[in-house]
Amino acid sequence: AQSVTQPDIHITVSEGASLELRCNYSYGATPYLFWYVQSPGQGLQLLLKYFSGDTLVQGIKGFEAEFKRSQSSFNLRKPSVHWSDAAEYFCAVGAYNTDKLIFGTGTRLQVFP
Amino acid sequence: DVKVTQSSRYLVKRTGEKVFLECVQDMDHENMFWYRQDPGLGLRLIYFSYDVKMKEKGDIPEGYSVSREKKERFSLILESASTNQTSMYLCASSLGDSWGANVLTFGAGSRLTVL
């Protein structure tokens, strides 16, 4: 069965600084990988996804993520964080034989001016 | 835009009450899901449905049931609410044409407090 680990519960960065949120997955084959963002009081919104092909994927709001098979990782990055990026970020993994997504426990991002 | 609407944003119920959480999507999606979100635990799948009247248990189905009588509507039912069911409940839907590769569209959530 697949699983997802987000090792960082809470991250604080200054506005304008770079950001990397970590995600590690466990799955026997190449999984489908997703990053979602949840702003306060809102549902989750898709940031980006990886299904196959180029291992560096671009998403909305200037985010990107890189799939590294050797490290079973799919880390989310942004070169310069804006105050509006403060939110909770969830990594998720899907598998070939099910419609279910497995979510990580989330990373809360705080941005200081 | 696909819209997933959860009719109640905030509910307060008493222990033992029957609770209905309603979710409606407007883009003819095949799949619908109910997740529970708790701090430090992320999102956990309660139930999902891949067709009308079809349902499958997720990871934490105990104490919950679901109903999908129409394609656009997926209801979560707490037969007898308990305090440990105080949580944020998120409904989602997806197209259902490609296993594992479907993007979920989420509703805004229903925050339930059981006293």
How is the topology of this model organized?
The complex is a heterodimer of chains A (113) and B (115).
Chain A: E1 3-5, E2 10-14, E3 19-21, E4 24-26, E5 32-38, E6 44-50, E7 56-58, E8 64-68, E9 73-78, E10 87-94, E11 101-103, E12 107-112
Chain B: E1 4-6, E2 10-13, E3 19-25, E4 31-38, E5 42-51, E6 54-57, E7 65-70, E8 73-78, E9 87-94, E10 105-106, E11 110-114
Brief description of this entry?
The complex is a heterodimer of chains A (113) and B (115). Chain A is mostly beta strands and 113 residues long.
Q: Would you mind describing this structure in some detail?
A:
The complex is a heterodimer of chains A (113) and B (115). Chain A is mostly beta strands and 113 residues long. Chain A is 0% helix and 52% strand. Chain A has strands at 3-5, 10-14, 19-21, 24-26, 32-38, 44-50, 56-58, 64-68, 73-78, 87-94, 101-103, 107-112. In chain A, strands 2, 5, 6, 10, 11 and 12 form a six-stranded mixed sheet that branches. Chain A has a four-stranded antiparallel sheet with strand order 3-9-8-7, with no helix packed on it. In chain A, a hairpin with a 6-residue loop joins strand 10 (87-94) and strand 11. The radius of gyration of chain A is 13 Å and the shape is globular. The relative contact order of chain A is 0.33. Chain B has 115 residues and is mainly beta. Chain B is 0% helix and 55% strand. Chain B has strands spanning 4-6, 10-13, 19-25, 31-38, 42-51, 54-57, 65-70, 73-78, 87-94, 105-106, 110-114. In chain B, strand 5 and strand 6 form a beta hairpin. The relative contact order of chain B is 0.32. The model of chain B has no long low-confidence stretch (mean pLDDT 92).
